[in-house]
Specification:
Shape: elongated
Structural class: mainly alpha
Number of helices: 21
Number of strands: 0
Order of helices and strands: HHHHHHHHHHHHHHHHHHHHH
Length: 311
């Protein structure tokens, strides 16, 4: 075992030396071999870091990086323990742009590697939201999230989109690429883990005026959110309720009627009677009150019947 780990160290060291000298196909081949060693052996990963391999690999990312080189570089970098300095170096616009290009072109595995690398950069304290304020990045992520052929990309894509949506400055840009209708359409088909991320993102987007309007303009927002109340988890109920509140508050007359017709009143009563948190119950009560303003008491009480909800 010791021999094998020494071999891996030696091989990693050798490949790094080769990488400094070669170009073209030889460079791609060297990177492929280095990736294999790095993925398989922790000692090789340590060697690459200790021998300045991260800086060498990072230097290969730039405006003229080919996909063949870039995808291998990213695949190696995501397996290494990156120092703060290395991350700062990778945050240079030209390097981020190169990673985004690779994300746009790549196979599923490469896309996920790019997502993981960008997530790693976002953990850095010097991270600035401008780094991810990229139309191209957001479009690539939405493409990953919507790709029905590769459901394994949904969770990483939504995970990164969630991190990005936590930055107030980027929310309008996320709305502008059409993320809201796309995410709303996905709601019924996402698994619970992905669903929670999608709802988090939509809720974050509802905090900007364009987001509120986008949610209101999307015909499936209200029915999809109403269906989710008390269905998956308390978090999902909380996000769905918050989104419904934003939309109904924006246009009480129009949206409250649609929501009540979709069975919202009965669902809100379920929330109020449930074991959910007091804050959630309070929000449900406020929304119920807002919705009731458009109806006479008798009609509203009939709308609160649980029969439709249970069906």
């Amino acid at each position: 075992m010791k021999k094998r780990s020494e071999d891996a160290q030696g091989r990693a060291s050798e490949l790094l030396s080769t990488l400094k000298k070669v170009k073209g196909q030889a460079r791609i081949q060297t990177l492929k071999e280095l990736k294999q060693v790095v993925v398989s052996h922790s000692t090789a990963r340590k060697t690459v870091v200790d021998e300045g391999g991260v800086a060498l690999l990072s230097s290969l990312l730039g405006p003229f990086t080919s996909y063949a080189v870039g995808s291998e570089v990213v695949a190696i970098l995501v397996n290494l323990a990156l120092s703060s300095e290395s991350k700062t170096n990778l945050m240079q616009p030209a390097k981020v742009s190169s990673i985004v290009d690779i994300l746009n072109e790549g196979s599923l595995e490469t896309k996920v590697n790019c997502v993981r690398l960008i997530e790693t950069l976002m953990e850095e304290k010097d991270f600035r939201s401008e780094i991810v304020s990229s139309h191209s990045l957001l479009v690539a992520l939405m493409r990953l999230v919507r790709d029905k052929r590769h459901p394994n990309g949904h969770l990483p894509g939504l995970g990164l989109l969630k991190l990005i949506s936590m930055h107030q400055q980027v929310r309008s840009l996320i709305v502008s690429i059409g993320a809201i209708p796309q995410l709303v359409e996905l709601i019924p088909v996402l698994n619970p883990e992905c669903l929670e991320l999608a709802l988090f993102i939509l809720n974050a987007l509802s905090s900007v005026p364009e987001g509120k309007q986008g949610l209101k303009d999307c015909p499936n927002t209200i029915p999809n959110m109403v269906k989710l109340l008390m269905r998956i988890s308390e978090s999902c109920t909380e996000y769905a309720l918050s989104i419904l509140w934003s939309v109904c508050k924006l246009s009480p007359d129009e949206c409250s009627l649609i929501a009540v017709d979709a069975g919202l009143a009965a669902k809100l009563l379920l929330v109020i009677q449930s074991g959910c948190s007091p804050e959630l119950k309070q929000r449900a009560a406020e929304l119920l009150k807002l919705c009731s303003l458009n109806y006479s008491d008798t009609i509203f009480i009939s709308k609160c019947k649980l029969t439709r909800t249970i069906q």
